[in-house]
Amino acid sequence: MIRPAGHGDARFLADLQKQTESESDFLLYGKGERSLSTQKVRKQIISWNQSGQSVIYLAILNGEHVGYLIAEGNDAARASHRLDLLLAVQKKAQGKGIATALLHKTEEWAEEKAITRLELTILEANTPARKFFEKNGYESEGIRKNAIMIENKPQNEIYMAKMLIS
What we know:
The protein has helices at residues 10-23, 38-51, 98-112, 127-135, and strands at 2-4, 55-61, 64-72, 82-89, 117-123, 139-150, 153-163. With 166 residues, the protein is of the alpha+beta class. 31% of the residues lie in helices and 34% in strands. The two termini are 30 Å apart. The chain has one domain (2-163): Aminopeptidase.
């Protein structure tokens, strides 16, 4: 099941973010690197739901929160047509179509909001993610060299985007 996050999901989302960050070397934050309080996440969910410019979708499998897609809009009128995306799925739930379902649900929401550009960055070394997004119509727009340090090794980021309306 894919649904928007409500304020009652704050604890689940905070725990899910911590879990996915601990499982992956490809996310901005590493294992235990940041503290996500339920209160802070709840405030973010409420703020975004009230603004109508951003949304968080949750994936629930067999009653458990297993993935999320954060789509952050922009307050500036000149950039109100775009969303920044962050997608993560627990390792045990990968390969089940959850990422695709989250992405499609977010794209539907974006079209309803007249958003025409979806953006994201991925680590160049994350070949599966790059192939996934390419398969879903995202194109590489450039590389940010040495943008992220993982275990004291510089990593390149790839900018990717998809236009919903040409």
